[in-house]
Amino acid sequence: MAEKPSLESRFENGLFASRWLMAPMYLGLVISLAMLTVVFVKELVYYASKTLIMTADQAILAILTLIDLSLAANLLLIVLFSGYENFVSKLDLGDARDRPDWMGKVDFSGLKMKLIASIVAISGIHLLKVFMEVGKQAGDAVPTDKLFWLVVIHLTFVLSGVLLALMDLLASKTDKH
């Protein structure tokens, strides 16, 4: 006769099953990726239609905008795949030949590093776009205090990334308990 599961066992099974509460959040990220794709296509169509009348600086700004959007989409995919595999369930894709090599290998520490690296890259591109606007036209000048705070925020992201990397390095050097 089978033994009845204990209260503790049922509680632990329920606790473990609660990870599935994250699934709607990952579905929300998929919807966010679709929204970002629509914005990317809209921007691409807008800039492509102006290609023949753009200056070199305008073309660079347009390209930086598209790169910025694609980096944000990459960030979403990294969080989506890694987060799902680390916290909910492994993706059973069979013998998928085009499965990225990093899938299933990015742990929480790696996810943090990819996240902060993407944020720094996105912030850097945004800052570069603002710098390219400096001195263009007197009426469109970027306020000095706004520029100052953009640089401070970017440097804060960079410093955060360096500190996270340092913490991960130190953690990897210590004995596991």
UniProtKB/TrEMBL annotation:
Topology relative to the membrane: Multi-pass membrane protein
InterPro entries (UniProt xref): UPF0114, UPF0114_bac
User: Chief subcellular site?
Assistant: membrane
Q: Which UniProt keywords apply?
A: Cell membrane, Membrane, Transmembrane, Transmembrane helix
Transmembrane among keywords:
yes
Pfam families xref list: UPF0114 (PF03350)
* Keyword set includes Cytoplasm: no
Transmembrane region positions? 20-40, 60-81, 115-132, 147-171
Q: Where in the cell is it found?
A: Cell membrane
Q: HAMAP family attached here?
A: UPF0114
Write out the similarity annotation: Belongs to the UPF0114 family.
Full protein name: UPF0114 protein V6590_09450
